[in-house]
Design goal:
Length: 301
């Protein structure tokens, strides 16, 4: 009898562990914000439940937290709400007055589903399709999670920027975006995901804190250790260093893909760096001194 009870509990635990979860208590996503001369992040968090179209939905609040380097102004705003729900391992979202599939975790290689684009100010096709290229399992926070590697369907103008993982969603932005070449300001790749039972998942290669705005956290302090100016710049930037390491400071300039373009050692506390050879775009300047490592954003115009 005891063995039977133990076996039942074991099987029940297995079912609970493998059950699909979407937007539980505390669910919060942080995404890079992608826009020229603007740095920051988008934050999506589960805030409440609501019945929409007969379905009990998770309300996800979308927020913008950015700093504009040109106007030197902050934006902290709620920019929308999304209505989603989970049913039979499929996550649905609301567009055009009805629900569409956001993620289908029942899918196998070759499967596909229809996605809907923006329901406001949408210059593209209203609908597109997603094709599953492959599936697999990854371990995050000691939990096995299914992943889907996907691509746009034939003639689809909508895509996910990265793979899709159970519980977390797309490692690009949560919702499908246009696959055109035009740069559209808005949320980009996932930085972090958190919920109360799962804990924190922080992706490698992104800022150390989920809500970090590169350079701004230090710029706002009166005792600013290091600085670069002007931002934006066209030919030369000036780096001011507080304390060199044993008389030496290392300054590294990288592009947004992490490619090291310049590596400069100096004993000066103020240095001019020629950027004539760099293309127009966004770069990161890393200053390594006895205060530690500080990364600042540079814009070449």
């Amino acid at each position: 009898m005891k063995k039977s009870i133990f076996l039942c509990l074991f099987l029940l635990q297995g079912l609970i562990t493998n059950a699909q979860v979407w937007a539980p208590l505390g669910a919060t996503w942080y995404y890079d914000w992608v826009e020229m001369a603007v740095d920051g992040y988008a934050k999506i968090r589960y805030v409440n439940d609501s019945v929409v179209g007969g379905k009990l939905c998770k309300i996800l609040q979308v927020e913008q937290h950015t700093y504009n380097w040109t106007t030197q102004t902050f934006t902290h705003a709620i920019i929308g709400h999304e209505y989603t729900y989970l049913e039979n391992n499929i996550v649905y979202y609301h567009r055009y007055g009805q629900f569409y599939t956001l993620y289908d975790f029942n899918s196998g290689t070759g499967s596909s589903w229809i996605v809907a684009g923006w329901d406001q100010n949408n210059p593209f096709d209203s609908l597109g399709s997603i094709v599953v290229d492959s599936t697999g399992t990854t371990i995050i926070n000691s939990l096995p999670l299914k992943y889907l590697k996907v691509s746009p369907g034939p003639n689809s103008e909508w895509e996910y920027m990265d793979m899709i993982i159970e519980r977390i969603g797309s490692l690009g932005y949560m919702f499908p975006g246009p696959n055109c070449v035009v740069d559209i300001p808005g949320p980009g790749e996932l930085r972090c995901y958190y919920d109360d039972s799962f804990g924190l998942y922080r992706r490698a290669g992104f800022p150390p804190n989920c809500d970090f705005i590169i350079g701004v956290n230090d710029v706002s302090k009166e005792n600013n250790r290091h600085k670069i100016y002007p931002v934006p710049a066209s030919t030369v930037i000036t780096a001011e260093i507080n304390k060199p390491i044993n008389g030496k400071t290392v300054i590294q300039v990288s592009d947004i893909s992490g490619n090291l373009l310049k590596n400069i050692e100096t004993v000066e506390s103020k240095l001019e760096i020629n950027i004539n050879d760099l293309r127009t775009g966004i770069y990161f300047v890393k200053i390594i001194s006895e205060d530690g490592v500080k990364t600042l954003k540079m814009i070449k115009n």
